[in-house]
Amino acid sequence: MATMRAIVLEPTGRLSDAELPKPEPAGRDLLVKVQAVAVNPVDTKQRIESGTRVLGFDVAGVVEETGPECQLFRPGDEVYYAGDITRPGGFSEYHVVDERIVGRKPASLSFVEAAVLPLTGLTAWEGLFDRMGLPEPVTDGIRRAAGVPILVVGAAGGVGSMAVQLAKLAGLTVIGTASRPESSAWVRELGADGVIDHSQPFRTQLEALGIREVPYVFCLNAVDPNWDAMIDVLAPQGKLCTILPPMGTVAFRPLFNKSVAWFTELMFTRSTFQTPDMQRQHDILTRLAALVNAGQVRTTLRERLSPICARTLEEAFARLRSGRTIGKIGLEGFE
């Protein structure tokens, strides 16, 4: 039996290097030879009670083999994707993934530069355009939501770094939140029109920028500590999208009084429930790659580690747990 190298999570919470059977593709699966991966906060929150589990939901690699029902890819194609939370993750030498949630890697990027984009890119795209219904950016340069303000709470992180860029491409006036000089500088570098501190009241800071209220709020941080401030500045009949659920009780009545629409966004929903529009993620990644290749979206890679092994993953996880990362951390190459 052919084997492969992988990094597994043990019940103790420890990551360790392992040798596992090489998977085989079936149905619409692709067998991908992994070249680079990226880490996300969700990786650090995974827990198991017994056995081991392979983590990892951001991958860039090369298609080695296709399942008998594949229609979109062939061996040799360079791809990038965010995977499926119900299947083994991509921190392994080879990985099996349904082609409907895979896109062709942007040709202008290296594997590690591309590996940091799928999970955050899909989350930002789905939140902005599928959930809140904003007009999608296109490569023709036409700004279809010109001047409409949006507040991106947590703009310096992985999803925020993509949301700022995509919202700007759609023509929105983007106000991002950040709490440190270096993270504020990063948000401005990505194109934000203004930056405020999410540790301080929102209203006075927005008013100082000449904005009284915003019709859209995209919250990429914890919901509870930001809830009152977000609802306070959200315009009547506005739209709020969060990528995390509240962990405690939040006051719903102010949201109700303003007839605000509250959307939730979980990038794994389509693959988890095998929704009829699951191939939408292939389409989004294709559109995102076109924007990258056109020079309109940049990689959010900020730190690069090597090789892909338990030791470097532990190092990357420690940086994520610090809560002070900007952009994304990517890993490339097996030992």
From TrEMBL:
Nucleotide-binding listed as a keyword: no
Family the entry assigns: Belongs to the zinc-containing alcohol dehydrogenase family. Quinone oxidoreductase subfamily.
GO molecular function list: oxidoreductase activity; zinc ion binding
Keyword entries, A-Z: Metal-binding, Oxidoreductase, Zinc
Protein name: Zinc-type alcohol dehydrogenase-like protein
Limits of the Enoyl reductase (ER) domain: 13-331
Signal peptide: none
InterPro entries hit by this protein: ADH-like_C, ADH-like_N, ADH_Zn_typ-1, Chloroplast_QOR, ER, GroES-like_sf, NAD(P)-bd_dom_sf
